[in-house]
Write a structure and sequence with these properties.
Blueprint lengths: L2 E5 L5 H15 L5 E5 L13 H11 L14 E9 L2 E2 L1 H9 L13 E8 L6 H14 L3 E2 L17 E4 L10 H16 L5
Parallel strand pairs: 1-2, 1-3, 3-5, 5-6, 5-7
Antiparallel strand pairs: 3-4
Bound molecules: flavin mononucleotide.
């Protein structure tokens, strides 16, 4: 399955979510999986960060920048961004808006869409951010994939996508539950038949 994982991240949390999905797909033999960041021209070098954080932020910035064209040949698109004021970050929104070149001719129609976000505070809009990603997908005619309640037995997660509470920290490690959810959800995603 041809897959693109597109993310925006400033402090690294959404990068970790994106990278965990990427590694899960590669581990499952999905060589046609590509990882992209969206453009973020005003990201500043943050000098006060711990070494470990600086290292993975530098890895993050070595990734290719997504363009609207990279979506065209994909069956599955995973999009993730930090929750900013109950929505996606401006950089992710700018990327979405740039794909309007595909909108009128329905070039993304029928592609599967998965949403993920990290947020700083419970009950502060992470789900709204996921819904913004799905609202975008609906305008594009994409098929939103939700997370079934059975994905990790005994744990009910958000149906709208992966929601990770970073508690305002810079991303250094994801918790075990989030990694397990991404692994199990990746298994599920790879069992859904190609729609195009
Ligand atoms: C401008 C701004 C707005 C934010 N708005 C919210 C919000 O509405 N709800 C929330 O839970 N966290 C909010 N946060 C916290 C981020 O979502 C959180 O720190 C996130 O994990 C950052 O993701 P990143 O590490 O990928 O950059 C906001 C942070 C910033 C800088």
């Amino acid at each position: 399955m041809k897959t693109a994982i597109i993310f925006h991240s400033v402090c690294g949390n959404d990068y970790l979510l994106a990278r965990t999905f990427f590694e899960a797909f590669i581990k499952r033999g999905q060589k046609d999986t590509e990882l992209y960041r969206v453009s973020d021209d005003d990201w500043k070098d943050q000098l006060d960060l711990p070494e470990a954080t600086r290292k993975h932020l530098s890895d993050m910035f070595s990734l290719p920048v997504a363009t609207p064209e990279v979506l065209l040949d994909k069956d599955l698109i995973l999009m993730g961004a930090p929750t900013y004021f109950g929505n996606v970050s401006a950089e992710m929104k700018a990327f979405m808006d740039a794909t309007s070149c595909h909108w009128f001719e329905g070039k993304l129609a029928g592609k599967k869409l998965v949403a993920f976000t990290s947020y700083g505070n419970s009950e502060s809009g992470g789900s709204l951010c996921l819904q913004s990603i799905h609202t975008y997908g609906q305008h594009m005619g994409m098929i939103s994939v939700s997370i079934p309640t059975t994905t990790v037995p005994g744990k009910i997660s958000s149906p709208y996508g992966v929601l990770y509470n970073s508690q305002g920290k810079y991303g250094e490690l994801l918790d075990k539950d989030t990694i397990k959810l991404i692994e199990k959800f990746s298994d599920y995603l790879l069992k859904i038949p190609a729609s195009r």
